[in-house]
Write a sequence for this structure.
């Protein structure tokens, strides 16, 4: 009987060890998830801080002027590309609320503001907008 008693104790001890290891692994996984959440939070704070710094200091002579210029160029490129999308879709933006409206619409379907009848030509001269390997040619001549 002594053999079975020792075997029972050994099985109980192994079970306790396995249970503790599972708790440890689970605890580590939870801590890693918590760390990732905190890192994501910090990244968001950096982004907000950088944006606030940019908004406060744009147009000023700061050491980060090169990055400021790159941001402004990227924003201009985005605006041009958004206008291209509207042109392709034969649409325009409501000057009041910014909603998209058909070129032929007389009123905005969101805010109800009367839209101008004349649709303006694309306001930019022909140029290329280069992003990575892709290039978009903006043509203002119809």
């Amino acid at each position: 009987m002594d053999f079975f008693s020792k075997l029972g104790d050994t099985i109980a001890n192994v079970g306790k060890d396995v249970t503790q290891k599972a708790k440890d692994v689970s605890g580590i996984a939870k801590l890693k998830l918590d760390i990732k959440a905190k890192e994501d939070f910090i990244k968001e704070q950096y982004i907000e801080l950088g944006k606030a710094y940019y908004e406060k200091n744009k147009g000023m002579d700061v050491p980060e002027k090169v990055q400021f210029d790159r941001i402004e160029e990227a924003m201009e490129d985005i605006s041009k590309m958004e206008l291209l999308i509207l042109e392709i879709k034969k649409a325009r933006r409501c000057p009041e609320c910014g909603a998209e409206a058909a070129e032929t619409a007389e009123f905005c379907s969101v805010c109800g503001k009367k839209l101008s009848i004349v649709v303006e030509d694309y306001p930019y001269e022909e140029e290329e907008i280069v992003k990575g390997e892709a290039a978009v040619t903006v043509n203002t001549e119809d």
